[in-house]
Design goal:
8-stranded parallel β-barrel, 11 helices, globular, about 230 residues, TIM Barrel, about 20% strand, alpha/beta
Length: about 230
């Protein structure tokens, strides 16, 4: 039997902390600090999932039951199986790669419906992000993420920017747009003002000696950019 989706009654934008770590104890410590600072979505990052398995999702959900837990699977194949594994572990949102075959995304969406979860499609390394975003929206994505990866940031010495692609997606997508890639307190409000609904912050928080203060700085800087929930709610 299908379960009713957990309602989102808050305001946009949302801050999501990306726990791209390898040790569960570090992830729990930083997630707890970020959540206390007002970060509402916590992500079991891909490295953490590969290191700790679905224990990472279960432990985050157990430690922070009020938080929305994201399993950053970045699935490329076997969409139904991998999506089900993550939802069974307690994830509220599961990510799948935008590079995946259309049938993989459709299979993941069908599983999402059974669990009343949400599906985030990550456009990392897609050659035509605007085109692919429109395609995956039709395939059933609940959230679409424009993402500049860590290795790309190092190679190009560049982080996510207010690009034409970002502006186009924020303006035209019916589902919320997420963004990831070197987001800090200075960039976050600019992205939110451009229409990004989910600000995924990783290194600024996880690399800080004071994760609580780092997270609070992002949340505080976004205080004046709240947008009432609209038709693009998840």
């Amino acid at each position: 039997m299908m379960t009713k989706k957990r309602a989102w009654n808050g305001k946009w934008p949302i801050v999501q902390v990306a726990l791209d770590l390898i040790r569960m104890e570090d992830a729990l410590r930083i997630a707890g600090a970020a959540h206390r600072a007002g970060v509402e979505w916590v992500e079991a990052g891909t490295p953490l999932i590969k290191s700790e398995g679905m224990r990472s999702v279960r432990e985050l959900k157990r430690a922070l039951p009020a938080a929305v837990v994201v399993a950053d699977m970045k699935t490329l194949d076997a969409g139904a199986i991998e999506t089900e594994i993550a939802f069974e572990a307690g994830a509220d949102i599961v990510s799948i790669s935008g590079l995946a075959h259309d049938s993989t995304i459709k299979d993941s969406a069908r599983v999402r419906d059974r669990y009343a979860g949400r599906l985030m499609v990550d456009l990392l390394m897609t050659s035509s992000p605007v085109l692919r975003a429109r395609e995956v929206e039709r395939l059933g994505a609940d959230i679409i993420c424009l993402h500049t990866g860590v290795d790309a940031q190092k190679s190009m010495r560049s982080k996510l920017k207010l690009s034409p692609a970002l502006s186009t997606l924020a303006r035209t997508l019916k589902v919320p747009l997420a963004a990831a890639g070197g987001i800090n307190p200075r960039l976050a409000p600019r992205l939110a003002a451009a229409g990004v609904r989910v600000l995924i912050v990783g290194g600024w928080i996880t690399g800080s000696t004071d994760p609580y203060r780092a997270a609070l700085e992002v949340v505080t800087r976004l205080g004046g950019t709240d947008v009432e929930e609209d038709q693009r709610s998840v």
